[in-house]
Amino acid sequence: MMASQKRAQYPVGWLPYALVAPQLAITIIFFFWPASQAMVQSLQVQDVFGAHVQFVGLLNFRELFADPYYLGSFWVTGEYAVLMAGSAMIISLVLAACCDYLIRGTRAYKMLLVWPYAVAPAVAAVLWAFIFSPGVGIFTFVLRQWFGYDWNYLLNGGQALTLVVIASAWKQISYNFLFFLSGMQAIPKSLIEAAAIDGSGPIRRFATIIFPLLAPTTFFLLVVNFIAAFFESFGVIDTTTQGGPVRATDMLVYKVFEDGFKGGDLGGSAAQSVVLMAIVIGLTVIQFRFIERRIQYA
Amino acid sequence: MIEHRPGFTIFCHAMLLLGVAALVFPLWITLVASTHTASEMRQVPIPLWPGTHMFANYYTVLTKGVEGASTAPMARMLFNSLVMALSISIGKIVISILSAFAIVYFRFPLRMFFFWMIFVTLMLPVQVRIFPTYKVVADLHMIDTYAGLTLPLIASATATFFFRQFFLTVPDELMEAARVDGAGPLRFFWDIVVPLSRTNMAALFVILFIYGWNQYLWPLLVTTQESMYTAVIGIKRMMPGGEQAVDWNLVMSAAMLAMLPPALVVILMQKWFVKGLIEQEK
Lengths: 298, 282
Fold this sequence. Notes:
Mean pLDDT of chain A: 83
Mean pLDDT of chain B: 85
CATH topology of chain A: MetI-like fold
Oligomer: heterodimer
Radius of gyration of chain A: 24 Å
CATH architecture of chain B: Orthogonal Bundle
Largest interface: A-B, 100 and 106 residues
Low-confidence stretches of chain A: none
CATH architecture of chain A: Orthogonal Bundle
């Protein structure tokens, strides 16, 4: 680890406390207090009016994991995360490799490929919902007219999931592309040139030099893409499918909101929040352990 | 490019053009849809070339909103989004540069404890603790206020980390020299640390502005009055559910308007954007 502090430092006084105070105050009020509330609530059952609260231990969690809808939501989220992260990573890897190979015109490509990062997930979803709208969507028209394929994501679960995956991957490609490209440009050119002199072509060089050296970036992006799939899907789902049809796109983050705000099941929703927290913490720990290793060996 | 392989070069250009086309296509469709009348947008297939109603559509959306769905004018929502994005980005930068400065340049009791308290917040996105946070904000009477919209999202550790990493690379000699010259910590902070951090602040600003502008779930919960809606959630309210036909021309004009500010920030500040994005994750 890098030294976490300076050699020379200022003496203690009231000043350092005053400097950290704003951040600490906000962290405690809007972070620690609510997060601890979520944990307490996950162990309680409340009636609809909030008048009667009872401590029930792990009952909410037991009910949760016995609930086929919740397990179904887990499955859907996993499916979505794998499809979204997989497609966004493969496409952006190909684009970055092409951009890295070329020298001319890459600035224009970069500019044109990067801007979707700025688009809100919810807005991206609205754009794709329009393109795939059952009534007037241009892709719906093309699919029906040219391929004779009937598209209606409001009725067909598989199609709904496809739409959600496309809308999220579209946005994620920009982000992955930037990281892959900057990873590739950090690889010493002499390595690539030496391989070229030895007679290996661009595809072979990619497979044997570039891709293996890119492993840290790939792994990092995998974690980030999964976290994005777990948490940023809310806006996409809420503006397009709202979890439907028949729970085909009922992701974990959406279900927390649905059960808590619409269903009024605070204990169950809090238990779901705690499960989600455990997932994020797990993913973050994996990421940090890995980053530490990178610092040691690289 | 090391060797001369025209075939492969053409292949690379073709792949990139395909990628650009896939990313730009929805934008084109949106732009086209925002320039037609509602009835033109109900034809099948929809027109693929811009029409003549661009100004009429944008004017309607900006000043009146969508008839029958949400009637809040978009201008107001864009203003709310701007306030939210600026408060979050500037607020985060200010509180985290202060706390990072304290953690790096002072040795005081509880320093590591505070550091870990801030560090833990890295792990939990707002979506996860959404209910209790909502309740806290409601108890503080901050529903439908800018404070309620922004303060809970300022609590995050990424920016503090970013500045901490940067401060650790600043040579110790600078601080020692400042001390010898009789500058106290605040003077050193203001005259040396802040000017040195300028590019880092710009980089962070781009990322945080986009983060703030694009928030969805939180504004959805804490705003109940149309006058407090942000642009991103306003679009959803323009699409009535059920059997009612959506006025796609107006919804798409609103979408264009909601995309424009963050896209401009990314394009105009591209250098800092890439720096901020890549370095924030180190």
